[in-house]
Amino acid sequence: MANSNLTEAQRAKNDEFYTQYADIEKEISAYLEFDPDVFRGKTLLLPCDDPEWSNFTKYFAQNFDRFGHDANKSKLWKLNEMDADHVAAWSKGGATELKNCQMLCKTHNQAKGNR
């Protein structure tokens, strides 16, 4: 069984296997070199079990402005349209300190799965 090999490798390393951030960045960069607008206006479904810790979620959240939503670039957000957010979830040990906090619009904060 293919899964038994992966399970054994995971057990031996005592770690979880996730797609690495650098690999996601490299792959997405190849798509963007081919077509800079490849993601513009698209809905992206990210392959992840836990959106709070997924490298896919982290990559696309950190590069959100590069992939579309140009209408929001000049928008002045009202305070009631925003949520304070922990980058590393508080429920998973993320500290409540400036370097771990960000403001997100309510829609994108809810999309992270923090609620």
**Strand arrangement across the biggest beta sheet:** 1-2
**Beta-strand fraction estimate:** 5-15%
Distance between the termini: 37 Å
Q: In one word, what is the shape?
A: flat
In N-to-C order, the SSE pattern is: HHHEEH
Q: What is the strand tally?
A: 2
> What is the averaged pLDDT score?
75
- Low-confidence segments, given as residue ranges, are none
Structural class, by secondary structure, is: alpha+beta
Radius of gyration: 17 Å
What percent of the residues sit in helical stretches (DSSP H or I)? Answer: 25-40%
Number of domains: 2
Largest sheet: number of strands, sense, barrel closure: 2 strands, antiparallel
Count, helices: 4
Please characterize this protein's 3D structure.
By secondary structure, this protein is α+β, with helices and mostly antiparallel strands. The chain folds into two domains: 1-73, no CATH class; 76-115, no CATH class. It has four helices and two strands; from the N terminus they run αααββα. It has helices spanning 2-13, 21-34, 55-62, 106-111, and strands spanning 82-86, 101-105. A two-stranded antiparallel sheet has the order 1-2. The chain is flat, with a radius of gyration of 17 Å. It starts with a helix and ends with a helix.
